[in-house]
Amino acid sequence: MDTQAVSYIAIDVSKKTLEVLSEDWSKSRSVANSEAALEGLLKKHAGFSQSHFICEATGGYERALVGLLHSRGIAVSVVSPAKVRYFAQSEGVKAKTDPIDAKMLLRFAREKRPRATPAPSPQRKALAALMDRREHLSEQLKREKTRLQKCDGLVAQSVGRMIDIVEREIETVDGQIRRLVAGFASFAKVYETLVSVVGIGPVTAWTLLAYLPELGRLSRNQVVALAGLAPYNRDSGDSKKIRKIFGGRAKVRRCLYLAAVAAYRHNDVIRAYTQHFLDAGRPFKWAVVAAMRKLLIHTHYLVKKLDVALA
């Protein structure tokens, strides 16, 4: 497609409404964030089917919109809110309202021309949903266990019962995830490869399958950047500051941290690699982040050799 001919539609997504702005409109229009309203929007504006939509990742409120557009074969880019926020700051825009946000999204699309977000396979979509649910339950379990340390009597009994319920529910979700992964050939193949690496357990493998479908498909530097493990320079003139990592996919990074700590204890290669930095006087967390990056690059190489698609 000729990039000069792309017509963008920006949508600022909130829980109840969508603020829609087309390049042909002088101001944005608000519609309900519902499947019926989205269907009506596409029917009313036939030209939208040939346009390129852009919206921000909002933690789930954008899923209905993105799912509908993918089902219709319409291009849509789901971009990081931080990128759009930094772009707005660079443009000197400090105010924030839904119409202003839609306007900035449209300007961002014109300037940056983001790639379309590929439609996930039904299997990866289901896996990501189950992993999201597992994370919610794990967070609840952690809170209940913290409460148990501070209470007694009848309250402690109530908290104990809740802990049992949540633990059983996590076991149920884990079973669903195992069956889903085992029942999809490419997932099963990649999963077995990932857990063969000492330090990477089932949860880390599931996380990579669900949230990093680019594994094995892009360059290793691109995959490392997506996970938020690329150290960025912070130099100016004679000042040479410590490079830091930031951004990327937090869910992937959190699991890789735990995997790297486990690998430091049980994986001879990772232990020697990490110890090298510790002996050089680096902080433990610094060395662990280096181990995370090495683990990710290694798994990326292994999956690339399999030549399977995770999307």
List descriptors.
Nucleotidyltransferase, domain 5; 10% strand; alpha/beta; 311 residues
CATH superfamily of the largest domain: ATPase, nucleotide binding domain
How far is the first residue's CA from the last residue's CA? 22 Å
- What fraction strand? 5-15%
Q: Helical proportion?
A: 55-70%
Oligomeric state: single chain
Q: What would you say this structure looks like, in words?
A:
- The protein is of the alpha/beta class.
- The protein has three domains: 110 residues, Nucleotidyltransferase, domain 5 (2-Layer Sandwich), CATH 3.30.420.40; 61 residues; 99 residues, no CATH class.
- It is 58% helix and 10% strand.
- It has twelve helices and seven strands.
- The strands form two sheets. The protein has a five-stranded mixed β-sheet, with helices on both faces. A two-stranded antiparallel sheet has the order 6-7.
- Strand 1 and strand 2 form a beta hairpin.
- Helix 10 packs across helix 12.
- The longest helix has 30 residues.
- The two termini are 22 Å apart.
How is the secondary structure organized here?
Blueprint: E1 8-13, E2 17-22, E3 29-32, H1 35-44, E4 52-56, H2 63-71, E5 75-79, H3 81-90, H4 98-112, H5 122-148, H6 153-182, H7 185-195, H8 202-211, H9 220-226, E6 235-236, E7 239-240, H10 250-266, H11 268-279, H12 284-306
Parallel strand pairs: 1-4, 4-5
Antiparallel strand pairs: 1-2, 2-3, 6-7
Helix pairs in contact: 5-6, 5-8, 7-8, 7-12, 8-10, 9-12, 10-11, 10-12, 11-12
